[in-house]
Amino acid sequence: HPHNLKCVTHNLRRMFCAWDFFSKGRHGQTDFCYTTNELSPPVCFKTKEKRVEIPVPQRSSIVSITTNSISGTATKEYEIHKKEISFVPHTPHILSLTPDFSTSTLNLKWNDNGSVFPYGLDAFWQIQILRKEATEKVAQITYYSKLTHEDTILSWNWTSDMPLECTSHYVKIRCYINITQFVGPKDWSDWSPVEMIPGKDTEPHGSGVYPQDTVVAVGSDVTICCIHEEGQQIQRMTYGPETYPMIHLSSRSSAIRVLNASASDASGTNVVCILSEYEMDGTVLFVGYAPDTPQDLTCETANFLEIKCTWKPGRPSGLYGKRGTKYSLFERLSGKNVLCKVNEMNRDRICSFPVLADQKTYDFILNISNPIGQVQSSLLVDLTQRVHPKTPEKLTVSGNSSTSVHLHWFINGSFAEIRLLCQIEIVSGHSEQKMYNVTMWGREFSTYTAQLNMLHPYTKYQFRVRCLAADHFWKWSDWSKTEEHTTSEA
Amino acid sequence: MAAADSPSAALRRRDLCSRGIRLAGKMRSDVIDLLDAYVERQGLDASASVAVFEGVPVAAAEHWDEQTGTQRLLENLSAYRAFRSLLAQMLEEQREQLGEADAPLGQALAAVLLQVSAFTYHLEELLQLVSPGPPSEEGPGPPLPSHLSLFERKLRGLGVLRELAQWAVRSARDLRQLNKSSPGSSSAPSPAESP
Fold first, then answer.
1. Which of residues 109-168 of B touch A (CB under 8 A)?
2. Taking 80 as the threshold, does the pLDDT of residue A72 lie above it?
3. Residue B30's domain spans which residues?
4. CA distances from A112 to A16, A88, A176, A187 (A)
5. Inter-chain touch B154–A209, beta carbons under 8 Å
6. In chain B, what residues touch A342 (CB-CB under 8 Å)?
7. What's the CATH code of the domain at B25?
8. What share of chain A is helix, strand, coil (3-state, %, to 5)?
9. How many domains does chain B have?
10. Which intervals of the chain are annotated as region Disordered (chain B) (predicted)?
């Protein structure tokens, strides 16, 4: 007799029914009949299999199985209720498994076969990552998606805790679809066939220490592996001055795990894999900080030709050379971007940006980045309010009057847009000091003049001058050099 | 020796040999200092044994005592030309990898490069005296294999400095040997041999 009849549907429309026979002997053809509802006549056909595919009934289906064997004919009839039919989704298939060795990331793509199901069902995808010939599970993740009654390619990334070169990685996936209106038991699909990304330890002459010359953030946990030829033995693996316990990955690959890595020296921390007295391999790990948020960002111009932005860098990143911090100044209104050449050894950072024709306001974004991270700082500047003139030069004093003189000085810069306030310090021989302010229209790379009256005859005076923007006080220039002059006798 | 020595040429040669010996002695002590700093700054193990990298001239010489003066000078010249380009590569890499971060090591490297260049010029001058027409410059020197990882470059740098220190000793011995074999010479002081 046939027994143990079980029916499973993968798509809610058709189902596979399978049965067993009590006796083990040879069985001839089987006559299989089924009904899909109470009104319709049974549909019959012959089969040699112990499994048939028939429609899923609306409520229940009457099934009769007649088997013919040498010991005679036996018929068994079943009524299969809908709630006895199991729902198991089709086994998913991985479309692609793509490694990104630079980021130790695997990208998985698969088709959700959503067209088979009504819109809006919840689907759960269990993804397993394995190593060691797919015997050791290193990660199991459940990914959720909604079916859209269309076939959708789903994509998912996984970042390994060790470089993908270290050993082969295997991935498989299965799914569970939550069909609330389906009354029968629901189960996970079978696992998909396994997909593999081979490690360097499978390559005939693959060897090396990985990751190669990489940068990580302080505090990271890092796995570093050493791959060697078949038959070789690793004596020890050191990280900086310390020997670390080794983790066996395969016959040609072992790793060490560094926890909470501390900042490395400028030349990086060496990871050395000692294979014998004369044979070693290694890599260099650079452990540093992401750039710190710049402090006190200010921008000013000394000559209306160039804008100088300065800031305090905050904590050093500990990364140098080509891994060092990169700076760029972006001006939103003009869209101009300038790369800054910054000397990491200076206490303050400086970046220059050209003054643009007919532009008074500047909306700066200072971008600071290194291999670990990026920060920004912004500043809106009205240039006429951020003038810090250069030191007045070539101060000369002229005049042969006994009570007045003319002062002349040059300021390197293009100040035609603003008024300048210049302050003249007058020190006479009796160490009496006076300040005299004079305001004038700025000019292009020009010499400026001021006349001082009511001086004492036949008196030795020392003069010096400094200037700033008259309408928006920002910073005085430095004082010019002092110039001496003695007024003539009365 | 190819050309018969006139008294002034012999005098000039002895002078160049003596000065060369002193140059080699100074260079050796500076290279040793640089080596210590390099090992410390690059986080290397001073006792590590380093395989010989392609392009790094090896100081050990078979049949050293059978070499002629010209052969000695030619081998020295070829070695120091190679070291000049190897050190220049190391300096370039230092700047690329560290920027301004380790200026002292960069300066020490540049100082030794200067000495190697001076010593190379000195050898060319001496070779001109001993055997007219020194070989033309042998091109840019050993290219740095681009596939070397950072760790391999560190080891290579260690190998270069170790070998250069050996060469400084050998050069002093070669020049002393050259001095002995020049007419009317008396053996010059040998700072390099002091322990």
1. 149-152, 154-155
2. no
3. 12-46+75-135+150-180
4. 21, 14, 11, 16
5. no
6. none
7. 1.20.1250.10
8. 5, 55, 40
9. 1
10. 176-195
Q: Which position has the token pair 């991985």?
A: A94
How far apart are the CA of A164 and the nearest CA of chain B, in angstroms?
A: 18
Question: Quick one: which of A340, A311, A312 has its CA closest to A325?
Answer: A340
Residue B131, min C-alpha distance to chain A (Å): 41
- What number is the average pLDDT over the span A52-56? 94
Q: pLDDT tens across A95-134, in order?
A: 999 999 999 999 999 999 999 898 999 999 999 999 999 9
B165 is a domain residue:
yes
Q: What is the pLDDT of residues B50-84, one digit of tens each?
A: 888 888 999 988 877 788 888 889 999 999 999 99
pLDDT score at B187: 44
Separation of alpha carbons A410 and A417, rounded Å: 17
**Is the pLDDT reported for residue A177 higher than 90?**
yes
What 3-state DSSP class applies to B118?
helix
Enumerate residues 6+ apart whose C-beta is below 8 A from A409: A392, A393, A394, A395, A396, A422, A447, A448, A465, A480
Please, what is the average pLDDT of chain B? 84
* Residue B176 domain flag: yes
Nearest CA in chain A to B99: A321
- Could you say which of B101, B149, B151 has the minimum Cβ distance to residue A321? B101
**Predicted confidence (pLDDT) at residue B195 exceeds the cutoff of 50:** no
Inter-chain CB proximity B99 and A278 less than 8 Å = no
The Cβ of residue A438 has, within 10 Å, a number of other Cβ atoms equal to 18
φ/ψ of residue A473, rounded to 5: -60, 125
Asked if pLDDT for residue B119 goes beyond 90, the answer is yes
DSSP structural state of residue A343: -
pLDDT (tens digit, 9 = 90+) per residue, A424-481?
999 987 668 899 999 999 999 999 999 999 898 999 999 999 999 999 999 999 999 9
- Is B155 within the bounds of a domain? yes
> Which residue in B has a C-alpha nearest to residue A208's C-alpha?
B149
How far off is chain B from A229, nearest CA to CA, in Å?
Answer: 18
DSSP lists the bridge partners of residue A299 as A309
What is the distance in angstroms between the Cα of A226 and the nearest Cα belonging to chain B?
13
Reduced to 3 states (helix: H, G, I; strand: E, B; else coil), residue A322 is helix
What are the CA-CA distances from residue A263 to residues A218, A286, A370, B43 (Å)? 6, 8, 15, 13
Residue type, B79: A
- The pLDDT-based confidence of A354 (bands split at 50, 70, 90) is very high
Interface test with chain B among A267, A283, A342, by most B beta carbons within 10 Å = A267
- Going by the DSSP 8-state scheme, the letter that residue B67 receives in this structure is -
Residue B193 in any domain: the answer is no
Q: Which residue of A has its CA nearest to B52?
A: A278
Q: Name the residue facing B97 among A212, A281, A321 (closest C-beta).
A: A321
Cβ contact (<8 Å) for B151 and A269?
no
Residues of A in contact with B95 (CB under 8 A): 321
In this structure, what is the dihedral angle of CA atoms A456, A462, A463, A466, given to the nearest 10 degrees? -140
Determine the pLDDT at residue B53: 85
How many angstroms away from the CA of A168 is the closest CA of chain B? 23
- CA A30 distance to own-chain centroid: 62
Question: Looking at the partner chain, which of A270, A322, A344 has a beta carbon nearest the beta carbon of B97?
Answer: A322
The predicted model scores a pTM of 0.83
**Residue A269 — pLDDT band, cuts 50, 70, 90?**
very high
A283 contacts in B (CB within 8 Å)?
A: 149-151
Q: Do B43 and A265 touch (CB under 8 A)?
A: yes
